[in-house]
Specification:
Keywords: Signal. InterPro entries: FAD-bd, FAD/NAD-bd_sf. By secondary structure, the chain is an alpha+beta fold. It contains 13 helices and 22 strands. Strands 5, 6, 14, 15, 16, 17, 18 and 19 form an eight-stranded mixed β-sheet that branches. It is globular and about 70 Å long.
Length: 467
């Protein structure tokens, strides 16, 4: 008897879920998406955050490679011009507690490229290594009952049509209609929580100036501890000899869309280094704005009743403020849970499979959710949450750890391990990390970015601001 799985959404979560299903031996895997999928690394409307900075952390990259074994996704990305950036040595980071030092030691890395390139490389690998079918179609609902989903309803010119499936995966992203779809089956009572700092992202692409090709990724982080809107900016190397420059501002501190205002915004940050860099670089695009940035958690795993044959992954389950760079990694973790549960169950129609996947995917999102929300609730004007006593305790400890990390390798490595999603947040509470936090930084705080002499010359040569 043949089986069919339908995946709604051709973003990273959907692509990886489709790869997992195909590898598990499902006879027919169909991926539905509203967009015409581009044949190259091009932006598409279905990814509202696609033009802004995306970071694929160590944990996420490892999961992608595990889900597409032998595809060489990392190598393909690097060959296409993506960059691998060491958190310990390849990054200039000004935190609310000061500049992090750079250490000549191995540490976790992140892959930087445009989201368009990442999706294209993964989509190409899936097409080459599986028999997954991609269809342009808009899913408008589920078929079946409150006990079992039987397929997907698709919009069509002559009237909606039903596509039967043994398993449906909702990987439709931020725009998911999963709550309404479940309601149509008689499943209600979904608890949702949204924490919205009002973050607006503004991004522009520049040509990397001659001589600046090896300049490190540079970020001035937002400060949630000063009772003012958070404001940040990052210069990130991407493919094609370009810099992707992204600014972010929470409610009341939003970046503007005009080029002059964009530059002023970067220069008005606690350190003007981003503005100084781009003041001497050639812009290649206009400034693109996006406001779809809130943290949203749909606690589907807590429903007392869940239909067989239906799984929710990626942003459709938990969406994070993109400033923290965790969304893509969490999507990969959810797909990995799907693969592991399919291996254990041995069948696409095994009783309880969908619920086990849902619970595992929700657990895999917990760390990223906690990190994002515990910061966002501190910004003025945030909607959907206030700091709890637990948040305040965690914040105080995190600040102490971050202050120590400005001059302590032990503290910095604990933070890198957690933010790269290589280890769970409990890493911050291991004895060595706690001792590092209590001891503080053995080195005095640095008031200047930790640049090499060559990098300092590059910055000086680019600076047109007179700052």
């Amino acid at each position: 008897m043949s089986h069919r799985a339908v995946v709604v959404g051709a973003g990273l979560a959907g692509l990886l879920a489709a790869a997992v299903l195909s590898a598990a031996g499902v006879d027919e895997v169909v991926v539905l998406d509203r967009d015409d999928l581009p044949e190259g690394p091009e932006h598409r409307k279905g990814l509202p955050q696609g033009r802004h900075a995306h970071l694929l952390m160590t944990g996420g990259m490892d999961a992608v490679e595990e889900l597409l074994p032998g595809a060489g996704v990392r190598e393909r990305l690097l060959a296409a011009g993506a960059h691998e950036v060491s958190l310990s040595s390849g990054m200039l980071a000004r935190t609310p507690e000061g500049w992090l030092r750079r250490w000549r030691r191995e540490g976790p890395v992140m892959v930087t490229c445009t989201r368009a390139l990442l999706d294209w490389v993964v989509r190409t690998a899936v097409r080459e290594r599986t028999a997954v079918e991609f269809r342009r179609a808009a899913a408008v609902g589920l078929t079946g009952s409150r006990d079992r989903v039987r397929g997907v309803r698709i919009a069509a010119p002559g009237g909606d049509v039903d596509l039967e499936a043994d398993l449906v995966v909702d990987a439709s992203g931020r725009g998911t209609r999963v709550v309404g779809w479940l309601g149509g089956l008689g499943v209600s009572g979904v608890r949702e929580r949204a924490v919205d700092s009002g973050l607006v992202n503004a991004s522009r692409v520049y040509r990397v100036p001659d001589g600046a090709e090896r300049f490190p990724l540079t970020i001035v982080q937002a400060d949630p501890y000063v009772s003012r809107p958070g404001r940040s900016a990052m210069v990130m190397p991407v493919e094609g000899g370009r810099w992707l420059v992204s600014c972010g501002g929470s409610r009341g501190g939003e970046p503007p869309a005009d080029p002059e205002g964009f530059l002023r915004y970067t220069l008005d940050l606690p350190d003007p280094i981003v503005g100084r860099l781009i003041s001497g670089a050639e812009p290649l695009t206009d400034v693109h704005l996006s406001r779809s940035t809130s943290n949203v958690r749909r606690h589907l795993e807590k429903l007392p009743h869940w239909p067989e044959g239906f799984v929710v992954l990626g942003d459709a389950l938990a969406t994070f403020n993109p400033a923290y760079g965790h969304g893509m990694s969490v999507a990969a973790f959810g797909a990995r849970v799907l693969g592991r549960e399919l291996d254990r169950a041995g069948s696409l129609t095994a009783p309880g499979l969908a619920r086990r996947v849902l619970r595992g995917a929700a657990r895999s999102a917990d760390a990223a959710w906690t990190m994002a929300v515990s910061q966002d609730v501190l910004y003025p004007g945030v909607r959907g949450g206030r700091p709890t006593p637990g948040d305040r305790v965690l914040t105080a400890y995190t600040r102490r750890m971050m202050k120590a990390a400005t001059g302590s390798y032990a503290a910095a490595s604990a933070i890198w391990d957690v933010t790269s999603l290589r280890t769970p947040p409990t890493r911050m509470f291991r004895p060595g990390a706690v001792l590092a936090a209590l001891a503080g930084s053995p080195l005095p705080p640095s008031t200047e970015p930790p640049l090499t002499p060559e990098e300092r010359n590059v910055l000086r040569g680019l600076d047109r601001t007179g700052v």
